[in-house]
Amino acid sequence: MTDNDNDISEVAKQILNNEESLRGAPRSKIVEAISVLLLARPLRASEIAANLGFEAKYISSYLSYWRKKGLVYQEGGKWHLTTSGELFAKEVITNYNNSRFKEMVVFAKHILSNDQVKPSINNKDVQKTDKNEKEVLSFIEDKTNKINKKQQKSNLEECLRDLTEKLNQEENELIKFLLDKYKQWGSTYLYMDQIQEELKADSVWLFRILKGLQTKRLVYLYQDPKLGLRIGFTQSFKKRIENC
User: Fold this and answer.
1) What percent of the chain stands above pLDDT 90?
2) How far apart are CA 146 and CA 181, in angstroms?
3) Nearest 10 degrees: CA dihedral of 167, 169, 170, 173?
4) Alpha-carbon distance values, 23 to 36, 71, 83, 159 (Å)
5) Is a pLDDT exceeding 70 seen at residue 154?
6) Does an H or E element contain 221, and which?
7) Which of 105, 193, 213, 240 has a CA positioned 20 to 30 A from the CA of residue 161?
8) How far is it, in rounded angstroms, from Cα 226 to Cα 223?
9) What is the mean pLDDT of residues 126-149?
């Protein structure tokens, strides 16, 4: 693998590791990471899996779905990007780079505002100092709130670890998605079409994972005559979450 390939592989991994970018769409973000890798060169599913740290059959399920959407195609045992796929991958990298740049601009501005405050008996200078201090405190408070939210998230996942350790990788992904929605909206159930749309998931794949979680008594499936298939936490799982 060339240096350029290594750079692109690193971007793909950072896209997956970037919590802000993963919010609300774990399945589609993995596809973004896959598309970035394929922008470097065609790869086998096993090679993509090795670079991203997933099982090959798991990566294949994503590729099969997005082949139907016209982003990738398979030839000679390797996966390639279509013209649409190349545009998609380039947009992913552009958005990632812009996000990183904006983040650094914020830090740069606050470094300057904190460094340029000088003591003075001039009232305007005092007002300017107070304003800068408030901005810095606001910035710190914002960062602290984000850390606290991250810790709360980590505590919930840690509390449920004995259950999630028994799940396979796909089941864990879906449970994490449902828990994220619960923490965001307080909702203990969603509908099949909502989940499928947000995760960009193949319906056969999604139903298979849901049946597995139902067997393990973590979720229930209910066919609502008007709104379709509803997926929610079982009573025992809800109590476990509340106790966390």
Assistant:
1) 18
2) 17
3) 90
4) 19, 22, 27, 21
5) no
6) strand 219-224
7) 193
8) 9
9) 52
108: pLDDT strictly greater than 80: no
Dist. CA 164–CA 151, nearest whole Å: 18
Token code pair at residue 143: 């960062």
Within 10 angstroms of residue 126's Cβ, the number of other Cβ atoms is: 12
**Residue 236 belongs to what H/E stretch?**
helix 235-243
Task: Give pLDDT, residue 43.
Answer: 94
pLDDT tens across 31-86, in order? 888 998 999 899 999 999 888 888 888 888 888 888 888 889 999 999 999 998 89
**Would you call 50 exposed, middle or buried from its count of C-beta atoms within 10 A (0-12, 13-18, 19+)?**
middle
Q: Which residue has the tokens 């830090």?
A: 107
**CB 224, CB 230: distance < 8 Å:** yes
* Bridging pattern class, strands 189-191 and 72-75: unpaired
155-161: long-range contacts, CB 8 A cutoff, minimum separation 24: 155/244, 156/183, 156/241, 156/244, 159/243, 159/244, 160/240, 160/241, 160/244
Which tokens in the block code for residue 96?
Answer: 């990632």
Query: What is the pTM for the complete model shown?
Result: 0.44
Give the dihedral of Cα atoms 188, 171, 91, 70; nearest 10 deg: -110
